[in-house]
Amino acid sequence: WARGLLAVAAGLGLFYVVLRVPLRLRDSLAAVTVFLSTLTPKFYFALTVTSSFISGLIFVFEWWHFRKYGTSFIEQVSVSHLRPLIGGAENSPPAPAAFSAGENETSRQNMPECKVWRNPLNLFRGAEYSRYMWVTGKEPLTYYDMNLSAQDHQNFFTCDTDALRPSDTVMQKAWRERNPQARIKAAYQALELNNDCATAYVLLAEEEATTIVDAEKYFKQALKAGEMIYRKSQNCHSQSPQHEAQLRRDTNVLVYVKRRLAMCARKLGRIREAVKMMRDLMKEFPLLSMLNIHENLLEALLELQAYADVQAVLAKYDDISLPKSAAICYTAALLKARAVSERFSPETASKRGLSTAEINAVEAIHRAVEFNPHVPKYLLEMKSLVLPPEHILKRGDSEAVAYAFFHLQHWKRIEGALNLLHCTWEGTFRMIPYPLEKGHLFYPYPSCTETADRELLPTFHEVSVYPQKELPFFIHFTAGLCSFSAMLALLTHQFPELMVIFAKA
After folding, report:
1. At residue 465, what are phi and psi to the nearest 5 degrees?
2. 492: exposed, middle or buried (Cβ count in 10 Å: 0-12, 13-18, 19+)
3. Residue 151 shares a structural domain with residue 298
4. Boundaries of domain holding 395
5. What crossing angle do the helices spanning 293-304 and 241-267 adopt, rounded to 10°?
6. pTM of structure
7. Does 53 map to a domain?
8. Distance between CA atoms of 273 and 298, rounded to whole angstroms?
9. Are 477 and 395 part of one and the same domain?
10. Cα 445–chain centre separation
11. Three-state SS for 122?
12. Residues 466 and 479 reside in one and the same domain
């Protein structure tokens, strides 16, 4: 009986509360309506101005934080502090393990800010660059790039003793000529004076030959003449400093010819012959490592899918005392990715975590992306490629174009490698030290890369700029909020009565 009375009383109390809620809600709505009806246009103007000012301050702070640290403050706080409270988890790849400290310190020492390097895989002017210009009507090489090549030719193929041989005197002038037809005409003049002028054959192979087959024929003639001159220089190089300079020049000519012959064999499909020629050349002239012949060898071995040999070459040249390149870093990442890419799944990895092999692959990709962040967009075909220039800037867009032009096919050949790169590179890109003055695995990113790349790459190519990171969502949001509230303030000031009616409605 007592429990029945209590139940009836509880029911009556609940019924009373249900009846009172709509009454209170109606009273509250009536109070709000009375309050809004008493507000003046000045209040709405002050409100919009204040909100515009506050959102503007937030926008300025967000922009400053992004410029200094490379991330949005609001996004960083929400990811680092709010998401764990809500129960979410950030599935970001683990922080990369620290590489050898000696690599970082050695790279920092005596490192010029912007040094332009000869492209180890540069194309043939007559057989490749000129054919592109005939078909498209676009000049693939810039004047700055060709001027650097002219300086290289003068340094490689001339010396102080050229006056002793008339043919070499003619060729010394030929390398300075700006007009290609004038250079070709001078090469034929040199051959009339001396049928064994190796540098004349080199010029004709580079610029007059319209196919790789024709270029190879000229280079074989240059090799025959170059070996004969080289043997003569070896026999008398100790007689005087002039003879030593002549031996250096003849050595440069011989190495250049052998390398280009190996590249001709590679382009004509004789890959194993090209690999043998490159290995022999590296054994015969081990001190000429600055010519980066190993990068030609790496590309040829990847074409053969001889991954064990590729790893052996990397073990020798991916050393802390040697300058890095995109070919070295990204080939190392490709080999690490090859071990896990076929079975890699982002969904599975986010649930169970990354395995040791996957962590190694992610770290290798992070290392490669930090060295040259322009490469992934070309490998993932998010940016269109152009013919690589004859000179490249390491860590620049020009190097990225040159690497992707020859190595994209090797990434496509390994199943899942590009998928792993796509899932990884953006996350590692955010972890790259920022701003420019900082460096983690390598020396700080040079600040002049954009300017140098614009000189090296053709005008019709959109130069990739780094570290121009995309603006976070919250910067766009605060900028829009600030603009919208400022517009409301302006409209309230100009049309106060109309805006009050709109606000009340």
Report:
1. -115, 135
2. buried
3. yes
4. 329-470
5. 20
6. 0.71
7. no
8. 14
9. no
10. 12
11. coil
12. no
Task: Answer yes or no: do 437 and 498 share one domain.
Answer: no
Task: Encode burial over 318-347: b for 16+ CB neighbours within 10 A, e otherwise.
Answer: beeebebbbbbbbbbbbbbbbebbeebeee
* Whether pLDDT at 17 is above 70: no
Claim to verify: residue 416 and residue 361 sit in the same structural domain: yes
- Torsion on CA atoms 133, 134, 135, 139, rounded to nearest 10: 10
Q: Are 1 and 7 within 8 A, CB to CB? A: no
Tokens, residue 107: 């790279």
> Coil, strand or helix: which one is 378?
helix
The answer to whether residue 94 is domain-embedded is: no
Q: Which two tokens stand for residue 347?
A: 């969904």
Last residue of a domain, one of 269, 304, 339: 304
User: Which residues fall within 8 angstroms of residue 72, CB to CB, at 6 or more apart?
Assistant: 62, 65, 66, 472, 473, 474, 475
Contact 263, 296 (CB under 8 A): yes
Instruction: Indicate whether 81 belongs to any domain.
Output: no
Per-residue tokens: 459: 């005008």
Query: What ranges in 1-142 are assigned the alpha helix state H?
Result: 2-38, 41-69, 73-77, 83-86, 101-108, 130-136
Residues 464 and 491 in one domain: no
* pLDDT, tens digit (0-9, with 9 covering 90-100), for 413-445: 998 889 888 888 776 656 655 544 455 667 777
Name the DSSP letter for residue 80. I
pLDDT per residue as tens digits for the range 259-290: 999 999 999 999 999 999 999 999 988 877 67
Residue 294 CA to its chain's centroid (Å): 21
- Same-domain check for residues 384 and 440: yes
Q: What is the DSSP letter of 342?
A: G
Q: Which residue has the tokens 């709405």?
A: 44
Residues 245, 294: one domain? Answer: yes
**117 in helix, strand or coil?**
strand
Looking at this protein, which amino acid is placed at residue 288?
A: L
Contact of 260 with 157, CB cutoff 8 Å = no
Two tokens at 440?
């983690």
> Which of 169, 211, 164 lies closest to 186, judged by CA?
169
CATH of the domain at 220: 1.25.40.10
